[in-house]
Write a structure and sequence with these properties.
Radius of gyration: 20 Å
Distance between the termini: 27 Å
Cofactor: FMN
InterPro entries: Pyridox_Oxase (IPR000659), Pyridox_Oxase_N (IPR011576), Pyridoxamine_oxidase_dimer_C (IPR019576), Split_barrel_FMN-bd (IPR012349)
Number of strands: 9
Keywords: Flavoprotein, FMN, Oxidoreductase
Largest sheet: 9 strands, antiparallel
CATH architecture: Roll
Number of helices: 5
CATH topology: Pnp Oxidase, Chain A
Strand content: 25-35%
Number of domains: 1
Helix content: 10-25%
Pfam families: PNP_phzG_C, PNPOx_N
Domain Pyridoxine 5'-phosphate oxidase dimerisation C-terminal: 171-217
Bound molecules: flavin mononucleotide
């Protein structure tokens, strides 16, 4: 396990306040485009952290499917472990780890279910098999065997053969409304750059302006 003893040099490219956009969402979009250009595999994958009903944090990877001034959009099963967790506590974290670029983005905020029409629209944009799969899995529940899982999928395929697949009401989109977004850039000597944007979210949906601060590595 050579990787445990490696000490990579993360290079000299700097992250300077003067080069960052005032709006962290625009800055994020620019880094996502860079990650795509760098051919990062699944550049839109991020690790979503939630807090469960037992107050235990849990993380898993999901795919970002939209990002704009409203926040970060992803889709999942509302009855999954993450869905249950989000019902209990809507505070979340997210990690985009673009390690080969020596870059990381951390987000914190609250996740809200999007409206049914937005979930419908996203569901309608997915390939047929993905739509069927949404019906075929009680995500996060135990199942006796792979065979049983395949049987569930086959039954759903049959049910929706040559038909439009409606969105299951237990599946759809969430949007993370960010309160903190941190851009991390690895530097030599472990003196990394960290620039954090933070704002206060109010329960009525209003928020303060973004404040930018540099953090020690
Ligand atoms: C690259 C990658 C992308 C994934 N994208 C999603 C996704 O967009 N939505 C989703 O529900 N699960 C996605 N998963 C599966 C989740 O990591 C996880 O296994 C699943 O959502 C169940 O999590 P939970 O039991 O904590 O709710 C993805 C996994 C990987 C590795």
């Amino acid at each position: 396990m050579d990787s445990l003893n490696r000490h990579e040099d993360y290079g000299q490219e700097a992250l300077e306040e003067g080069h960052l956009l005032d709006d962290p969402i625009a800055q994020f979009q620019s880094w996502l485009i860079d990650a795509e250009a760098a051919k990062i595999y699944e550049p839109n994958a991020f690790v979503l952290g939630t807090v469960g009903t037992d107050d235990q944090p849990r993380s898993r990877t999901v795919l970002l499917k939209g990002v704009d001034n409203r926040g970060f959009f992803f889709a999942s099963n509302f009855l999954s472990r993450k869905g249950e967790a989000l019902e209990h506590n809507n505070k979340v974290s997210g990690v985009f780890g673009w390690y080969s670029m020596y870059r990381q983005v951390l987000i914190q905020g609250v996740a809200e279910k999007v409206g049914p029409s937005e979930s419908d629209e996203y569901h309608a944009s997915r390939p047929h098999d993905s739509q069927v799969a949404a019906w075929s899995s009680n995500q996060s529940s135990p199942i006796a065997s792979r065979q049983a899982l395949d049987a569930q999928f086959d039954q759903a395929l049959e049910r929706f053969a040559d038909k439009d697949v409606p969105r299951p009401e237990f599946w759809g989109g969430y949007r993370i409304i960010p309160s903190r977004i941190e851009f991390w850039k690895g530097r030599s000597n472990r003196m990394h750059d960290r620039i954090e944007y933070l704002r206060t979210l109010s329960p009525d949906g209003s928020h303060s302006a973004w404040v930018i601060q540099r953090l020690q590595p």
